[in-house]
Amino acid sequence: MSKSHSxxxxxxxxxxxxxxxxxxxxxxxxxxxxxxxxxxxxxxVLTRAYLKPLPNGIGANLNTGWFTSASTHKTxxxxxxxxxxxxxxxxxxxxxxLNDLDLRKVELAAGESPITPTxxxxxxxxxxxxxQDNGNEVTRFxxxxxxxxxxxxxPMIQASVGLIKNTDVTVRYVPEVxxxxxxxxxxxxxxxxxxxxxxxxxxxxxxxxxxxFAGYNRIDxxxxxxxxxxxxxxxxxxxxxxxxxxxxxxxxxxxxxIVGKDLPFISVFGAVGYETSTMNLDVTGNYPVPVYxxxxxxKRTETLTDPFSYxxxxxxxxxxxxxxxFKLLFFNVFGEYTLAKYPVANAGVxxxxx
Length: 354
Known about the structure:
The protein is mainly beta. Helix content is 9%, strand content 50%. It is built from four helices and 18 strands.
């Protein structure tokens, strides 16, 4: 597989790599780089549609898994957790209709269906499309297949510590990781949980714990691209195409009210909350775009510099969460499920000294 076909796939599948032992997962969207051959406007439209599950799924994931109980640690009590989250993609976001997009140079090839997978769709190839310039075909390609998974995963490594006044601080951190030739990944976040029960009248008689929580999380992904000029296009050999890169960030925020009860071997909790998430994507560098030269009647290469960038908000606003934690001495196993437009299952293991 050439770099030009596989490198942008880091954008969609870096997170999946943390759960899979094989790099073959990256190859599921090996043709998404072809979007750039259609020029900046069409490439942005196609990228937005194809990657639609990503801001929704990653954002939903990062807003879960912050706590395993409504109670807080004692002062300097702490826990360390490793978690994984799966945001389930609704069927409406597993494919899209090319005829619904405002495309200028891209059109369906004759006899092709306009329905094509998103990144979270089936792993079957999409329809063939034709790129035209001034009424002349300059290239054609198949829309990329989906991952074959109707979920978006995300990893989490976090630690919490109890401070004064029944307040916990939670930190998420994954240092910058280099993914072979693909690019880099890192994650960081911070959350604060504070007990409300201590401030309630007759709190000793209150049958459950009540806390409030707020948390912020950020993931950064960058990928090195290598989209080469087409062999049959006249190209200026002095142009440098080695500076191609795509940078993506995911920023999330959530605020929740947690109610729960700690028992000797199990904790149960529920939460209701408000959450936001935003994906920012920036494609930079020089890219070869095939165009039709009416003067010579031949195909040549135009250079597209810093083609596009855009921001997109996640779908989840309000969420309802229920979870359990099983305790065996200092070892914990926990899981939760969040109801929202993109529902999320989150589970993990950890050590706790409360």
